[in-house]
Amino acid sequence: MDRADLIERLTPIIATYAQDKDAVASINETTDFIKDLRINSANLVDVILDVEEEFDIEIDNLSMERMLNVTAAIEIIEDKLKTK
Amino acid sequence: MIGNDIVDLEQAAIDSNWKRKGYLDKIFNNEEQFMITSGICSSLMVWLLWSMKESAYKIYSREIKIREFAPLKLKCNNLIIYKDKATGNVFYENEVYYTESFFDKNYVHTIASTKQEELERVEIKITDQTPPDYKMTNPNSVSHHGAYLALVYL
């Protein structure tokens, strides 16, 4: 799965919790979940749980710590898919 | 340094389903989960513990300039709950943060500091109307959630 596909599957998950809907339209690898999309920190947990379900992976606590932007999310998903 | 966090309980009920499978495990350790599930006000306890963690994290991230999402590393301890307030500690990266929380049916608000005496000196303003010029008043810590804005002055 290439990065464009990953972002395509990630976008609807992120869009659910983003308070800045305009920023969702221009999601790219540098997009920050909190600063750009204004996702409430309590909803970051939902993003992580949704990603786990969508990709059938488990995101450990150490990975979760840095999952604050699209790049980190993609790296983590790629990494977990590899070791599945 | 002061940190503060407000949770609009109505907004939180709309935005977050903490009963979702796996949700509590990502945020709260076993002891904290026990406090949540053993009491009658589970929902209030979720947001009380959450606001304690958030207010302490805000101090840490401002001082160290590191951002991370590690709610399990922030450990709530020594929580004492009174009628409409609570005091406690949050342990995080070898630092102890003292917290004081106030709650009613609308919101939970927590202030945190590394110095306990600082908590007694602060002035807190909570409003459901965001004054356009509130930044001019130089608050030490600002928290905004749902309908509420909380400003803390030292």
In short:
The complex is a heterodimer of chains A (about 80) and B (about 150). Chain A is mainly alpha-helical.
Please, could you describe this protein's structure?
The complex is a heterodimer of chains A (84) and B (154). Chain A has helices at 3-17, 21-25, 41-55, 61-65, 70-82. Chain A contains 5 helices and no strands. The longest helix of chain A is centred in the first third of the chain and has 15 residues, at 3-17. Helix content of chain A is 63%, strand content 0%. In chain A, helix 1 packs across helix 3 (41-55). Chain A is mostly helical. With 154 residues, chain B is of the alpha+beta class. Chain B contains 5 helices and 8 strands, in the order E-H-H-H-H-E-E-E-E-H-E-E-E. Chain B has helices spanning 9-15, 23-27, 30-38, 42-64, 116-121, and strands at residues 2-8, 75-81, 85-92, 95-103, 107-113, 123-127, 141-145, 148-153. In chain B, the strands form 2 sheets. Chain B has a 5-stranded antiparallel β-sheet with strand order 1-5-4-3-2. A 3-stranded antiparallel β-sheet of chain B has the order 6-8-7, with no helix packed on it. In chain B, helix 3 (30-38) packs antiparallel against helix 4. The longest helix of chain B is centred in the middle third of the chain and has 23 residues, at 42-64. Chain B is globular, with a radius of gyration of 15 Å. The model of chain B has no long low-confidence stretch (mean pLDDT 95). Chains A and B meet through helix 3 and helix 4 of A and helix 2 of B.
